[in-house]
Amino acid sequence: MKLSWRAGTVRRVNVNSLLLVIAGVVAAAIVACGGGEEAEVSATVEATAVQSTATVSPVPAPDLIRFADVPGIVDPTNFGWPRSVETPEGVISLTAPSTKIHSLSLGHSEILAALVDFDRLTAVYSFFVDDEQSNIAALSADHKMIGFDPEEVVALEPEVIIASRFTNAETVGLLKGAGIPVARTNLESSALGNIPNILLIGYMVGAEIEALELVDEIESRMRLITDGLAGASTGVGTRVLSVSKWTSAFAAGSGTTEGGIIEQAGAINAAADSGIEGHQQVSIESIAAINPDVIIVPQPLESANTFIDELMSSPALAEVPAVKNGQVFYVEPKYHTTLSHWNVRGIEQLAGLLYPSAFSGVAFEDFTNWGD
Amino acid sequence: MTHSVPGAADADARASAVSDLNGTGDDAGGGVEWPLLRVAEVTTVLGGKVIVDSVSLDIWRGEVVGVVGSNGSGKTTLLKTIAGLLDAESGVVAVDGFSVVGVGSGHGGRLGFRDRARRLAYMPQRAESHPFTAFEAVLMGRYPHLGRFALEGSSDREMARAAMERTSTSEFADRKLDTLSGGERQRVVLARVLVQQADVLLMDEPTASLDLWHQMLTMDLMREETNRRGAGAIVVLHDLSLAARYCDRLVLLHKGRKIAEGTPWDVLTPENLRTAFGVEGLVEPDPVTGKPHVLLLGSHYSESSGLIGTGRTVHLICGAGSGRQLMHQLRVAGYTVTAGVLGTGDSDREAAERLGLDYVGAPPFSAITNEQHSRHLELVRAADHVVLCPMAVGINNMRNVEAALEARDLLVVEPPVSPGSETEVAGSVGDYTQGRASQLRRGLIERSGQVPEVAVLFELARAGSAATLSDR
Amino acid sequence: MAVEFANSVPTGGVPGSTVVKRLSGGALLLGSLTIMMIVVASAVGPFNIPISHTATTLLDLAGIGESTAAPTEQAIIQSIRLPRIFLAFFVGAALGISGGIMQGLFRNSMADPGIIGVSSGGATGAVFAIASGASTVSTLFLPLFAFVGSAISMTIVFLIASVGGRFSMATLLLGGIAVSSFLGAVTTATIILTDDLNVQRQIIFWIAGGVDTARWESVRIAAPIIGVGALITVFVARDLNLLLVGEDEARSLGVRVTLVRNTLLISASLITGAAVAFSGIIAFVGLVVPHVVRLAVGADHRVLLPLSALGGGLFLLVADTAARVILSPAELRVGILTAMIGAPFFVYLLVRNRSRTSML
Q1: What three-state secondary structure class fits C304?
Q2: ipTM for the complex?
Q3: Coil, helix or strand for C237?
Q4: Are B161 and C15 in contact (CB < 8 Å)?
Q5: CATH of the domain spanning C18-358
Q6: Which structural domain, as residue segments, surrounds residue B141?
Q7: In this structure, how many other beta carbons lie within 10 angstroms of the beta carbon of residue C204?
């Protein structure tokens, strides 16, 4: 009896160590793939929905019909409480607009900041306050900050947790195990593609009107870009390379946020064009081989400038059009590496850079947060 | 005096080194004889414990000195200290008057590392194991003779090949050492010691893992080196007879101190064996070499308590070698053994004499006298057990069998059965008394039973413990 | 813990086959392969350069004829590919030779250059440079900090091994393991606790090892350290043979054991430190290369060490060239590639030597 029990324990330990090994291999593979996905990867950010009881809208505005197309809303005609959403973590029933929303990702937090009073978010993470990387740095600076231990999240007693697909499954499991509803929603690198996610989040936290307003703003801003691009006679087909240097240089290939921004700004992602998928390490020579017309460097200003100097002074790049024509630019990483409506600012900025004549006189402004 | 390379070192320096080491401070003239190796009052401390305690020793050219002693007596430590592998706490070691160990440098100068390696070769107890081939390992013996960037030349390789020939290691010259057996590796190391061509060979149990033939080969080769080249050697050996046979001089270590030094006959005395090894031993001349041959009696021989036979006396009635083996076995088991009556020249008497037993002797080929018989009876009556051995009985020793009647507790030993022998029938012994002896013996067997010789000790032990119980 | 040297493969050297013969044979083979590889590596890469242009550019650099390549092509060959080729070679050589030294000193073919904490010390130094922002001040600060980290951790391990006045190789090894574990924890803690994702990213990539950031400046700094260190080891290679046989044996054959051992440990550590400083942690080169060389030419360090240097240089050059072209125009990190080759080989060694595996 005792012996067999012991044997069972030993086996379990072995399974655990096997899992550890697998985890290690996976981690190595992620590193191998050139540094993982976005800022979200390491961040395991989260979004929660807390809703103020104030935003009661008894008469749905006519365009509430847009919610009918949003995947995840169980009953798109129900704008009262309780309401239910279906996410990959199952159906979650929300009894009232939550005042204790916890968001696990920067992107979700940025969206929530636009939809609801930031105080309805239970806490922020340390990297939210970096004003080069985050669009909610000022809001976050005054907010409660926690570490990455799931226990700290549980201690906040959030009513709902919003997570992204990059959130570590174990964390999600732990939080669900603690009895807190977790909603995992997608975040898209396409500005328009992200609209359903914004609407879903708005629905979850009872900020339908704010969500619709934000969506409208995104759509009108993107229309402005599209119209401007249509009017741009030159520069169509410009090949843009987004590259940053963290010890080694990494280019943003297909499927990346930066790549999406380049394409939405009417240009060709030169890295994806050269066959690079995701973020991949590149050398100076690779950049020469990619031969972009424009290079953008979405990383903090100081290190960006160092890297730009290196690019501009490299004799191997002297004949690359971007370098030869002085088309190597620092772009603000907070617009390029997040996953939220703020990507639109990156698109606008880049479009303005690429097609100055088409957007001359257009003053692009920042998005506003709730209450601003 | 700063020169450290000896070469043609001046005799004055050497002489002064010796006189200083002697501590006599007498004339430093060129006529002073000095040894090849001088070990002067060397003390080695390991882990706060004195392992070698002020040992002095001189080796002369051509001489082999054996170092003997029990485990932990400091033999290996002494050798390692001489070799410069351990730091001496105090004392000096000098080769040819050149100091190699200790603070007493500056006499003939202090030898550098490689100079020392050309003069002192060391063969450790445990043979090395590594991925070099045997040939490479042997060739390493030439390193002290090569300049820093010099490579082994053809003469070095020739020497290595010759040494491997001599140590019968040529056949595995190209195999890696970690694929060889312990004995094979030991011979490879021996070959290296040979090519090192050192003046002094320091060998720590060079025969430890060798078979008999290679043991002889190793010792013969060592003697060859001393005889041919005038090298000196210090050899640590466990086999005392081997040591006596091959060494000119022996040094006996006990608890780190040198307790005896001299010729094998001087050193290998029963008293020294008792002191240094705690064994009772006999030392006899080897029939061929005349060198001492050590016969060991047993591990607990001199102990008086805690053994199975402690406090009990066994009397053996024997003769003509019939009781020899039992005598020794009983003694080793702790019994007090007595014997009788044994005629001069009888092998049992010789054994009793050597073992130092109390016995009744008689002149050869003469009948037992009344006086001898009564002394014998005293021993028989005094003994807790009497063992009657299966000896041949004639008129002269008939009274020995009769004495058995007086035994308090008697064991009769079955005569041995020699297979194929027609003359000896199981259960019978030589009887030259017209059957009187046999009749008496049968009567004794009826009374006490009969046991084979191998069962005697067990029977005695059983009887002994029964007696102990009844005593209580 | 220890796995002794593999043994069943013949040395290939018959008695009498000289050091010179084996060394010159091996050096000729590896040297010509290296030169061939330098040419190949100069010719391939994401940027397509016609082979004739590469050839004339190389010849031009060697002082023969004139390059027919376009300025960009010349620039790519001269300022991108060649520094990287040389850095890869020197780093590989450093790891190969110091691996050979450590395996000899520890009498264990599973020893690698980082065994006494040099690599993890370098990593900690690099982490410090990245986390403090020093690495953005000058490109030389990262290697400098890494090198200093290596030196400090090596010193600490040395002091641990010398406690009580008597130096012990076993303590050195265990101290190395302890210090490595500690520094590894420091590095991991920095990654986990830092607020800055970019810092995390840089540390992770630095640790993964690579020579992609090579510039002539890196070669100019790393090569002399590695070269001088390697040269010193050649002086004492014969003594290392005897140390591998045994300390007592070495001493009684005239080796100044302490001096030689410290010389070797320090120069191997400095060599490794220089390599780690410019390349991060590149796994398995220092383990696998000396092992293979030993199987081929035997254990004599006079042959083994120079050939391990050449072999290590060649191996890392090949691996880095592969890392450059496999995913072209993107790259693999060469540290990952060497681990992918090295790890299975390591397993193979373990399995092969299983019967000889024993505790230290």
Answers
A1: helix
A2: 0.82
A3: helix
A4: yes
A5: 1.10.3470.10
A6: 11-297
A7: 19
